[in-house]
């Protein structure tokens, strides 16, 4: 990573960390973990299942909210407040700015996920008093959640490069919802014929496949996650994010900053 | 080598929902600024000053034409390392302290890491922000933000400094400080290109000015040249409250201020007026030809009546 990207990423991280809204969301996520403990205590024999399910879902949802909430303002806020002017009048290329913003927010989300994951493991230790070998799967699920954040960050940044924050939020959120049903969309495409088949197939492969990145239920039941899936998901997220970021750069490179 | 060279720069914005309405923000503009000059870019609000600056900074793309700074293209990162820019009404990352902000900008400008702390301290001292160095910018007043803006523009010792309305929002003391700072930059051999609609600042500071209105260049030249035209009148100031009767009949405009009198009268009556004052034993303080002020020139280029003409018309 070149030094300018690193400095922009560091500044983005620092801005997010100093943003009070971020702390509120983390606090709320920790509250959810506490709620998981309570639910676990009243769920006989399935405490682990409930805690892992609720805890990881909370980590995922709050991370997505943070990614969208901050991601949509990454470019538009800098244009509105004109902070971008003093950055781009320096030897900083526009693609470096986009890349710096992306790495900055992704880094923020990794750190947040780390702290929220501590909350989940603490809740798990509280209800079951011990860890099992299958709990390694929780780390894989967390890794997949981070991969989801990477895609959402890239998408929010993409929309932010040409749209208003509100529209960016709507677009990013709907893509997350649709992407969570990407597998169902693919199954539907198999059942259709003709133009509908092509349209459904196109849409199924265009939207991010969040369903493949969701192994929370599997992990909660103690089922192992195949290594091949880890590898494929990693490659998929890298390619998908790179494509989305390239789109963001292409648009942003041509944009007049009025 | 010229510091700034603008060749037929034009900007047309497409407006409206379907982007079918076009708005010409800048008509083909050709301009050159020499190295070491303080160049004033004057015009009323909405004249195209900021659009020009944004194009030069690579923030907005021109519809046609080109420009070079220090002989380099506008998208050349080497060139951007040698310029500083203060936007109009600057707003900075308010989660940062002044010191953090300057460190960040210094890093982006490629300032050597071993020199960075020293340069940040020096520039904070220069703009009198040392005591607020560790205060977050969200707690800064408008004047302090403007000073922080100037600090970030000169931090990396640029060769050309672009200032968009640098006196905006400053009190008289602040304006004087900025004026001194601009003069310091010139003394160091820097080129300063600044836009303003405060003509007294331009008149006091600039070697040359350009006047722009409705996106069109209306005039360019040295301040002394632009204000050189004489109206054929002379201003005489003397100590005392009385005006010899003969002077009034010479077509003079008389103004009393405190214990001095000031008259403006046709140049051919100067000797007669001075003789009349001598006869009355009145002490002459000054005799100066009436010149066109920059304001007169500015108003004339914008199509309005010059102040001196307006005075004559009223008289």
Question: Can you characterise this structure?
Answer:
The complex is a heterodimer of chains A (258) and B (315). Chain A has one domain. The model of chain A has no long low-confidence stretch (mean pLDDT 89). Chain A is globular. Helices cover 81% and strands 0% of the residues of chain A. In chain B, 34% of the residues lie in helices and 32% in strands. Chain B starts with a strand and ends with a helix. At the A-B interface, α1 and α5 of A face α2, α3 and α5 of B.
Q: Brief overview, please?
A:
By secondary structure, chain A is mostly helical. Chain A is 81% helix and 0% strand. Chain A has one domain (3-253).
Question: What is the secondary structure topology, with strand pairs?
Answer:
The complex is a heterodimer of chains A (about 260) and B (about 325).
Chain A: H1 3-17, H2 20-42, H3 47-71, H4 73-80, H5 83-88, H6 94-128, H7 136-160, H8 165-180, H9 182-191, H10 194-206, H11 216-220, H12 227-253
Chain B: E1 2-15, E2 21-34, E3 38-42, H1 49-56, E4 64-69, E5 72-73, H2 77-80, E6 83-86, H3 98-108, H4 113-126, H5 142-154, E7 160-164, H6 172-187, E8 191-196, H7 199-205, E9 208-213, E10 216-222, H8 223-226, E11 230-239, H9 245-248, E12 253-257, E13 260-266, H10 270-279, E14 283-291, H11 294-301, H12 307-314
Parallel strand pairs in B: 3-8, 3-9, 6-7, 7-8
Antiparallel strand pairs in B: 1-2, 1-4, 4-5, 9-10, 11-13, 11-14, 12-13
